Amino acid sequence: MYKLTGVTKRYTRGKETVEALRGIDLAIEDGDQLVIQGPTGGGKSTLLQMIGGLDRPTSGSVELDGVDLASISEAKLTRLRAEKIGIIFQAFNLIPTLTAQENVETALVPLGVKAAERRERAAEALRSVGLGERLGHVPTELSGGQQQRVAIARALVKKPKVLLADEPTGNLDEGTRDDIMGLLEGLWHEYGLTFIMVTHDSSIARRAPRLATIKAGQITLTEQGGARRAAAAQPFVQQPGQQYAQQPSYGGQGY
Amino acid sequence: MFGIYLKRELSRRKKAALVIAMGLALGIALVITVNSVSAGMQQAQDKVLKSLYGLGTDMTVTKAQTAPSGNSSGRPKFNFDAKSNDSKKTQSSDRVMTQGGQSLKSSLVTEVAAQKGVASAVGALSLNVTKVDGSFTQGKAQSSTQQQGGGQGGPGGGTSTGQPQVQGGGASFDVNSYSVAGVDVTNQDLGPLATSKITTGKTFTASQTNAKVAVLSKSYAKENKKTVGKTVTISGTKYTIIGIATPDSSDSTTDVYLPLKQAQTLGDSKNKVTTIYVKATDSQQIDTVKKTIQKNISGTTVTTSADLADTVSGSLSTASNLATSVGKWLSIAVLVAAFLVAALLTSSAVSRRVREFGTLKALGWPSRKVTRQVVGESIVNGLLGGALGIALGLGAAYAVTAISPKLTAELGSTGGMGGGGGMGGGPGGGGPGQQAASAAKNTMEIALSAPVSLTTIALAAGLAIAGGLIAGAMGGWRASRMRPADALRSVS
């Protein structure tokens, strides 16, 4: 589980000091889903960086299973990212010159997985997001939704404990957004991940069981009720590996 | 993954890779071309210098030039007998002079040889033989008083009638000159004959110190229809021809080689030499040896091949200077520019890939893995550039050799040089004097080639790798400074 205590992050730009996070306290149970929303520049992405071990807070601690990401060595932090944290980006962040399969393989490289096994696991992960036929395609040969699926496969191929998503549907149209959200929720259920997502999309935020709003570096938590949570847990889930593109529209489910 | 990623990057970003590689290639090709052309120039210059010196001669010692004085050598004298009436027999007379009329004592040879840094010293005597042959017909004395003024040839033809008149006298002469070199037969590795190869017959043996034998230059032998076994007569002395020597370059001016003692006898210069050929123990110490000799043995002029090289003018020396100065700096400048461009391009390519490398770091790639990727790409680019550059450079060098532009070298007289120079003090005679002047200003034509040595190619390959490493270091350093949080940057 995550335990953030008094997390503060200050950036210095020239003479100006910006306080992106001001003493955040937050606990996230294993297998929980947390949606972070808030105005642009409010500190959402900064918080995600702290949770993902991509950056260190100026003060405070970010504990994951008792390990403080703020104080461990760079090498250990890198290793921890490689093993436990899967990340999805708004712009997909695929390596443009590598094929879908090779992109997924990059997540296994720091873990020292042998080439043959790497290829096999990458192919398997791509099949599970419905891209079994696209292993050899480079990103430019794939649609936005397909690229994000490759990124999801890359995030999950190492079987992480935590899945972080930074505006995962921000660059996608509505229909594709629903496909991706359905896929992510299904995987969240299947893998029992701790799923933390930053989003602008209020329709996604509304149906999150637990919502964190970051404004001016401060956090407000909203529990959105057990019924909603139960409802949220249900609808989009089909068995992973099925054709998500054929799923009913996310938006059509009454949110 | 390293290999796949590398391959994908290079094959899918061909243009960028090619631009960097081409930049490096240009620099490297230029280095190869300039290097090989310089080597070619050096060879050409060596050829020119070798024609003046024997192989292995580092310097020559001659008598310091003094102002030629009219009576130092005397005016040439030729004695002909006016034969009786009908005789039209050809007469011949040789006048033998030491070249330049200046000579050194033979004992100086040992003195020079004893100097510090001198490996060996050999004396040689250069003679100039002016041969005049022709016929002289005596005028006939006429007793008739009617025929006045008919005879012009006789001396003292009086104008008073009734006196005998000389009539019909005349002379026709051929004047030609050739050069003779007295060679120290005990050491022929140095000296005038060292620049030639014996192509027919034999050279002197060490015992023929005073034998009446001669080696002829090929051109002289051909011109005068002489062959091995025949004899050549110089100033009344017959020499048996034992060998024909072909000079290594067309420039050698000696026609007849004789044992030193014979030449000394001919030239009436007992125990004298005109030139001392010196070989230094260390070719790097030539200047020091020159100073030593000049200091310890007064009245001499020491000429090194470097001095001689300074006297080489004409297109060869212009081109050679161009290749060594302009060419060198140009290739260094282009190389530096190529390295800089490669480094900047690599660095900017890395900057454009901020998110890519940030993402890899976010995925848990250690910095060194990311850096290794960038450096790897750069080195491959460098090698690619090196291969292209070597191909380009070899092509250019080959083209130069194929075209083989002709360069001319003019060798100025340095005064008293063994081969060509220093005939200033010679007789005032028209013919020989002209010849001497033209000999003093030798013009050689040499085809330029651009030999590419393995060293040059190794240098080019080294430069290519260095270029790749420099670019890689720059890009790698940039990549290593990227943070995993850069993955979240919105710039694309």
UniProtKB/TrEMBL annotation, chain A:
Instruction: Give the start-end ranges of region Disordered.
Output: 230-255
Q: Which keywords accompany this UniProt record?
A: ATP-binding, Nucleotide-binding, Transport
TM ranges: none
Keyword Heme carried by entry: no
Give the CC-aspect GO terms.
membrane protein complex; plasma membrane
- Give the superkingdom in one word: Bacteria
- Tell me where the signal peptide lies: none
Q: Which Pfam families does the annotation name? A: ABC_tran (PF00005)
Q: Which Gene Ontology MF annotations are present?
A: ATP binding; ATP hydrolysis activity; transmembrane transporter activity
Q: Which InterPro entries match?
A: AAA+_ATPase (IPR003593), ABC_transporter-like_ATP-bd (IPR003439), ABC_transporter-like_CS (IPR017871), ABC_transpr_LolD-like (IPR015854), MacB-like_ATP-bd (IPR017911), P-loop_NTPase (IPR027417)
Q: Which PANTHER family match?
A: ABC TRANSPORTER ABCH.1, IMPORT ATP-BINDING PROTEIN
* Name by which UniProt lists this protein: ABC transporter ATP-binding protein
Origin species: Streptomyces albiflavescens
Automatic annotation (TrEMBL), chain B:
The name under which this protein is listed is: Membrane protein
Q: Annotated region Disordered: where?
A: 64-102, 138-173, 418-437
Give the Gene Ontology MF terms in alphabetical order: transmembrane transporter activity
Q: Which InterPro entries match?
A: ABC3_permease_C (IPR003838), MacB_PCD (IPR025857), Macrolide_Exporter_MacB (IPR050250)
Task: Please report the stretch or stretches of sequence annotated as the MacB-like periplasmic core domain.
Answer: 19-295
Q: Which residues form the ABC3 transporter permease C-terminal domain?
A: 331-468
Task: Point to the regions of Polar residues compositional bias.
Answer: 64-74, 93-102
